[in-house]
Amino acid sequence: MAQVASDSEFVQAGRSLAERIANSRSEHEVVQARLTTDERVLARVTDGIYREPSSALRELISNAYDADATEVVIQTDRPRFSSIRIADNGNGMSPEVLAHVVEHIGGSAKRSPGGGDLGITQIDNRFLSPGGRRLIGRIGIGLFSVSQLTHSFQIITKVKDDPWRTVAVVRLRTFSDEASDADNGPYEAGLVSIWRVAARDIDASGTTIVLTELQRHTVRTLSDADRWYRVQGGEKPPRYHVGRLESGELVSDEGEPADSLPWKDTDDGLAAFTSLVDSVWEELRTGNSRNPSIDFLFDKYLQTVWELALAAPLAYVGAHPLMVGPEDADRYVFQANKREPARPLAGGSIASALEVEEDIGTGKQPFRVFVDNLELRRPIRLEGLPSTSHAIKKPLVFGDRVREDFGGVDAARSGGPLEFIAYIMWAPKIAPIEHNGALIRVHGASGTLFDQTFLDYGIAETTRLRQLTCEIFVTRGFEAALNIDREGFNQAHPHARRITSWLHASIGRAINTQKTLASRLHKEGRLAAAAGHVAELDRIAKRTWRQRQSGSSEPPPVTWAYPGGGSSSMVDSIRLEPETVLGERRASPAAERERMTLAAIAQILAAYNLLENLSPEETNELMKALATALRAEP
Predict the structure, then answer these.
(1) How far is CA 580 from the centre of its chain?
(2) ∠ CA 531-537-541 to the nearest 5 degrees?
(3) pLDDT digits over 317-354, tens only?
(4) pLDDT band (50, 70, 90) for residue 441
(5) Largest interatomic CA distance in the chain
(6) 13-42 in b/e burial notation, b at 16+ Cβ within 10 A?
(7) Span 547-586, pLDDT tens digits
């Protein structure tokens, strides 16, 4: 390992940091520098503004995406978590880019005019990567999100056609509120040692970040140490986990494997991850849980994997929600006129109806993320869902496309144009329950989980809200509303207010459509049930008549007539008076069902010749008594 230089060696007159890095030719020619932030407040990044390990890893995945990587591989030594390695095959960092990162934390060149000169954006479009991707990163703190996990890490990076690979060891400094407020200028966020080593793979490019000496709280979080401690006290363990440690040793119950995983050892990465997603829905199919939750179903490591899959710009584990077919969901698009009901689609996809790309929110170029033996996909599935007793048997998916220019209001006040595509799905069950909410993606990526308040939806629709999930794909705008950690946004920003307004109105429209459809299906079901009931009663009465009255194939018809309406022969018909038999019951499906039942009973009684010696009045009194008995509470 290279020796650490003295403070006097940090500054070499007349030479920029980039030049010094480029001229380093071995691990014995170490360049050292101070990490500085462009604004003092951004120094807090090195203390971890990100709340979970998944947040830090998410930012590194986003950096790889912005660098045109097609593959990111995250390797851990689960469940020990003594180290984490994140490798991508993106463009890598040249000495100039690495120098800019070191000297300007929080001063990203990605969206600045200098981004093209550094090769991290297109020359003529600072919002696109060299490969044409819309950039996710904004302010240049993503790399240092690892401060959530460790205060010391290594960067190994190389650009294509460079015969040298650059290695940097970073040691981050803990921010202190005790520092003098009078201190102006750049804040020193840490130290970095950099050297270059010869590379044989000249054509290769990419960046690897190696995290060692993980912070204690990081290890405890990823290994779910606190939960396993509670398990020892009697709490139920997670159904699926990667194993637990005691005193640094992997332990298990006698005769049981150390881990409990929903995939097979022989599964490839995609099959294994698909099994992970299926395990949530399997909870519903088997009846193990009516409301599956990843918080209870998975340990913290598997939850982290799930959250990474949800956040990254990846393909879905199944069909894209805007591409789901009629065999799996009833599809609708919202009309421009809010008073118009959602328009059902007979054929085609929601994407084609909205005239949007089929890969909206997932990116045109291939992008794959692996975590240990799992190949991640967005863990959202709309097809092949478990059967349900609900009147509506399939999910309802509502799509919409919104373009908002805010009436030409100046961009300084409106934030500029906003464009997004979205869907709302209703289903009898949303699984896992953490997906019950609204998720906003900006250029395919998300820093948040599903907002289960639906951005503070205030109308009391408790049951139906639990049956909704929504994704909003922002294709233009909204970035200025995002917080620094991308895990929240400024709700007062015009773009946030417009999305909130759309969501709340669209929830109402979706719920109204669902209510109308459910009401129609319930009515159709009642009519079908009534028809089936009448047909069954008719079969029973006719069968009984044929068995008891040989030579006559049909029982006498039952007529309902009011007193004074004439008389008929009992042989030819059975005359019943509604007011006498049924009383003052109002017309309803239940009353009609009762009439049909009593008519069949009368025909069965006639088959046994039990009505022959009764007068019409006695017959009606008998049927009244039977009606009263049938209505009696059990």
Answers:
(1) 61
(2) 145
(3) 999 999 998 899 999 999 988 888 999 998 889 999 99
(4) very high
(5) 125
(6) eeeebbebbbebeeeeebbbbbbbbbebeb
(7) 888 767 789 999 988 665 554 444 578 999 988 898 876 7
Please give the sequence-ordered ranges of beta strands (E in DSSP) within 342-467, or none if there are none. Answer: 343-344, 368-371, 374-375, 396-404, 418-426, 438-442
According to DSSP, the β-strands at 558-560 and 574-576 are parallel
Q: Are 207 and 161 in contact (CB under 8 A)?
A: no
| Residue 376 burial (C-beta neighbours within 10 Å; 0-12, 13-18, 19+) | buried
For the chain, percent of residues with pLDDT exceeding 70: 86
Compute the distance between CA of residue 191 and CA of residue 179 in angstroms, rounded to an integer: 18
The helix/strand/coil state of 58 is helix
How far is Cα 573 from Cα 562, in angstroms, rounded to an integer? 15
Give the burial string for 466-487 (b: 16+ CB within 10 Å, else e): ebbbbbbbbbbbbbebbebbbb
Mean pLDDT of 105-120: 65
Distance from C-alpha of 426 to C-alpha of 470, rounded to nearest angstrom: 9
Task: Report residue 628 as tokens.
Answer: 């009263």
Q: Which residues contact 587 (CB under 8 A, 6 or more apart)?
A: none
Contact call for residues 169 and 192 (beta carbons, < 8 A): yes
* Tokens describing residue 15: 């030479």
- Cβ-based neighbour number of residue 173 at 10 Å: 17
d(CA 441, CA 421): 10
- Answer yes or no: are the C-beta atoms of 242 and 301 closer than 8 Å: yes
The contacts of residue 408 (CB under 8 Å, 6+ apart) are none
Long-range contacts of the stretch 548-553 (C-beta < 8 A, 24+): 548/607, 548/608, 548/609, 549/607
DSSP state of 487: S
Percent residues over pLDDT 90 in the chain: 50
Residues contacting 315, CB < 8 A, separation 6+: 359, 362, 377, 378
Which pLDDT band, with edges at 50, 70 and 90, does 36 fall under? low
Residue 206: pLDDT above 90?
Answer: yes
d(CA 276, CA 308): 14
Whole-prediction pTM: 0.82
Q: Which residues are 74's β-sheet partners?
A: 86, 371
Residues 300, 304, 309: CA angle, nearest 5 degrees = 150
> Which residues share a beta bridge with 193?
32, 169
Q: Which residues of 187-226 are buried (b: 16+ CB within 10 A; e: fewer)?
A: bebbbbbbbbeeeeeeeebbbbbbbeebbeebbbbbbbbe
